[in-house]
Design a protein that fits this description.
It is built from 5 helices and 13 strands. It is an alpha+beta fold.
Length: 282
């Protein structure tokens, strides 16, 4: 049977490529593997276990699809980062952080395919965190994004420029800070690492409050709207657009994983992958 190749990086080029100049885009609803957590990603074991579980299931889904005739590489790791009150968000208080790690799936990965892969992986690897991996469709809607090139600890000017761009459009910040990791810190020099930084936004005249996604440990969800300027918020301009069973990319693969603290290079059990923590930590 000839496999159908699915290249999501190419098909969704406007979502998974960016330049150093901020741009607007619309992010449609897409299927993801997700896992939630809380705490300092540089020190909390729950973070390391979450990355390990997420990649384990992602590769199990990949191989299940490949047996069904669909060849789709595992996509880069992504992360949503927030605190219930974003006005208190601080890199000095990492233990207060909430996060959702996620990996995009191809459309052929149904909830049934994911559940079967998750069950099989749990049996094979015995990782407790696999029970927290879920399948979810997620849409950010209108957003702005920019490419940061360099160390994760040096992201702040890029983030500030992105927020300023949103303000210049007469829009509001809405939702969670979103990062997509295109570089591999185990192989690339810090100054060459590439990270897409995305920020959902809203128009001032929108009647609905821009929502921060549900806090995994709080109900109801925390909501926030931060006005930054008045004016007209334009419609989004759409851009154009390794695998092995243990879950580590091949040497040539550019798939990212969330870096752990640079002083730590742990080898995740069963993955053979050096897992690192939040790139903006340290």
């Amino acid at each position: 049977m000839t496999a159908t190749t699915v290249d999501l990086r190419r098909e969704l080029r406007n979502l998974y490529s960016a330049t150093s100049s901020p741009a607007l885009l619309d992010v449609p609803e897409l299927p993801f593997l997700m896992i939630d957590g809380h705490g300092d990603p540089n020190t909390a074991p729950v973070y390391r276990h979450a990355v390990q579980a997420l990649y384990s299931v992602a590769y199990a889904v990949r191989f299940a699809l490949k047996r069904a005739g669909v060849d789709a590489r595992v996509m880069p790791l992504e992360g949503l980062w927030w605190t219930p009150d974003m006005s208190t968000f601080s890199t000095e208080a990492k233990s207060d952080w909430n996060w959702t790690l996620m990996i995009l799936l191809p459309g052929q990965a149904t909830s049934d395919v994911v559940e079967e892969a998750r069950t099989r992986t749990a049996q094979q690897k015995g990782l407790e965190a696999i029970g927290r991996v879920r399948f979810e469709r997620f849409a950010e809607g209108r957003a702005a994004q920019v490419l940061h090139v360099g160390p994760y600890s040096a992201e702040q000017p890029t983030v500030a420029a992105l927020h300023a761009f949103i303000a210049e459009q007469g829009c509001l910040l809405s939702g969670k800070h979103h990062e997509i990791y295109l570089g591999d810190p185990r192989r690339a020099a810090p100054e060459r690492l590439r990270t897409i930084i995305r920020q959902p936004l809203a128009r001032p005249q929108d009647q609905l409050t821009a929502a921060v996604l549900p806090d995994p440990v709080a109900d109801p969800p925390v909501r926030e709207l931060r006005p930054i300027s008045a004016g007209h918020c334009p419609s989004a301009r759409l851009g154009s657009d390794r695998d092995h069973p243990d879950g580590a990319p091949r040497e040539s693969d550019d798939d990212a994983r969330r870096p752990d603290h640079r002083r730590r290079r742990g080898d995740a059990a069963g993955l053979g992958v050096g897992l690192r923590g939040h790139p903006r930590g340290g």
